Amino acid sequence: LSNRFLSKSHVLQVICAIVFLIAYTIYSASSIKACGTLFNTVIGIDQTYTMYVAAFIIIGYTFLGGFSAVCWTDFYQGLMILGSLLIAPIFAVSLINPQAVAGIPPDYWNPVAKTSDIISGFGWGLGYFGMPHIIIRFMSLKSQKEMKKSAVIAISWTALICFFATMVGVVGRMYLGMDENINQNSLVFIAMVRSIFPALMSGILLSGVLAASMSTASSQLLASASAFASDVYKPVIRKYQSGDKEMLWAGRIVVLVISFVALLIADSPRAGSIMELVANAWGVFGAAFGSAIMLSLFWRGFTFQGAVACIIVGAVVDIGWYLTMAASTGIYEIIPGFFASLIAGVIVSLLSGGPSKDVAELYDKANNYVE
Questions:
Q1: By C-alpha distance, which of 363, 297, 369, 367 is closest to 145?
Q2: Distance CA 211, CA 206 (A)
Q3: What is the pTM of this model?
Q4: What structural domains and CATH numbers belong to the chain?
Q5: Fewer CB within a 10 Å sphere, N or C end of the chain?
Q6: Are 335 and 121 within 8 A, CB to CB?
Q7: Comparing C-alpha atoms, which of 168, 183, 250, 266 is closest to residue 217?
Q8: Confidence at 371, pLDDT banded by 50, 70, 90
Q9: What is the mean pLDDT of the chain?
């Protein structure tokens, strides 16, 4: 974003890094908790112990390989996730007990029975625009000429994962019935796989849960470490006097700190479910960065001051809504946060007089190149 506005100010970088550290700590806690839940549910190992082991493994390969290691492990883990999500609902459909389906309340299938759930469901889509650990993958492009092809691959992958994840939820509800313990503890996939497949096959498919948790956590740790080292430590704390090795260790220390705090959150009885932790982090990211990224890409008149307003207003409204209004309204906090951020960015950009000539020329050059 700083490059987008040709800015020498570090304000935007510091604000983004602060949001990164807060949201990624919560997000990493959800991934670590998923690892603990998996092993505790399947083979009865103490949840706290398995969370520490999972964190140690994730930190290890993030340290050793950095961005390259995370990209390659994500690729193979992603294939495992897709295979697991594809196979489980197909087999479950053929084994559905009609009595379990009959026990589901009729209004469950009514698409407009609870409007707040529908609105909140669509609200999750707003988060994709502002997820740093998703956007950062485009750093691996060999050249800008590959942007369109990479965008097609990314969008296709997202569509596949969202579709099959939805099928797991819908088919799992029909197969398992209205078991609220399974629902509240995010155990639908685990329970469905364990009841359908023999031990060996079940273990292979359940490793998809582990793959999802580990790939997400490593991406988050890498992005947060990069944000702190590149956007805060080097330009603000060290005034560009740090070398590559010092930057590397600054990032590694951040990874360790975030992992430790995330472990404490995941192990806390007040942390909530895996889904609740994901929703909290996803909401902050989507509200803070979603509109800023969209306006940066598609509005020539967007300014540096508007981007700062987008991020601050989005994060504050998202957190404020979650603390005061989410429970009573049932509306996911990312929705008011995203649109408040969007409005703030537009208003502040207009009041600040629009972009400078150099920034406008850079925007035109970038768009002409893509075309």
A1: 369
A2: 9
A3: 0.80
A4: 11-267 (1.20.1730.10)
A5: C
A6: no
A7: 266
A8: very low
A9: 83
